[in-house]
Amino acid sequence: MNSDDVPNRVAPRLHRPHGPGTTAPGHVGPPRARPAPRPVRPLLARPPSSLVRILLCEDQEVFRLGLRVVLEAEPDMAVVAETEHLPGALSAAADVPVQVVVARQGLVEGATLPLLRDLCHRGTSVLVLAERREDPGAELVEVLRAGVRGYLPRRSCAARLVEAVRALSRHEAAIDSSATSQLVRYLADPAAPAQVPERVLDRLTDRQRDVAELVAQGLSNEEIARRLFLSLATVKSHLTASMRRLGVRSRTQLAILVNRDRSPAL
């Protein structure tokens, strides 16, 4: 038998009934329903009303950027505007709700005092960062009469600045005790220059003072590094230099000395 005599055998095609759940060949059925997506959980954001809204009035860019970094590191604070002069601060405060204005002392004196008075009378709290002066009594009296309720040395550490801003947001005064002493001396005898005794911390540089004050608050070197945005090695270097200048041999002795000398922020 040759190959032509062999019938082609084809397997019979099985016929499957089209019942429920089956699809005819070549027929595109309805798309399979996808499972419902999981609901998106909204981020737990603070309502804007809970933030302390701050305006920076500072004409030195590096210092202004530093203030912003320090204040916005706090979860309850937001810098909403910046300006380099008091007229700009007055205008910005009219456009954006502001609770606290932080301003350099040199920007709120002399011809700008009427603007400062206007800003305070609007209900905005002002924190003046005072610069070193031989006789600061008269300038202090002027800004207090204008309505200022916050007054700190410009070289204050970050923690004191934050505490003062929080106090002013609660409509509390935040005046450094060294300024209070100068004010008392000035009122007792306006003609006599205020002689402020040297403080222990005045022997340190600004950064050494920041580190020493945070040590006195009980912070570790790692915590200080994070707070001041410094490397751990830099913190240790400042700490060693501070202890050498103040003649102490341990962190405990340094903390005791700083707490005796430090003026409270409020």
TrEMBL record:
Gene3D superfamilies: 3.40.50.2300. InterPro entries: CheY-like_superfamily (IPR011006), NreC/VraR/RcsB-like_REC (IPR058245), Sig_transdc_resp-reg_C-effctor (IPR016032), Sig_transdc_resp-reg_receiver (IPR001789), Tscrpt_reg_LuxR_C (IPR000792), WalR-like (IPR039420). This is Two component transcriptional regulator, LuxR family. Residues 53-169 form the Response regulatory domain. SUPFAM superfamilies: C-terminal effector domain of the bipartite response regulators, CheY-like. Pfam families: GerE. One of its GO terms (molecular function) is DNA binding. The lineage of its organism: Bacteria, Bacillati, Actinomycetota, Actinomycetes, Geodermatophilales. Keywords: DNA-binding, Phosphoprotein, Transcription, Transcription regulation. GO terms for biological process: phosphorelay signal transduction system; regulation of DNA-templated transcription. Residues 1-44 are annotated as: Disordered. Residues 197-262 form the HTH luxR-type domain.
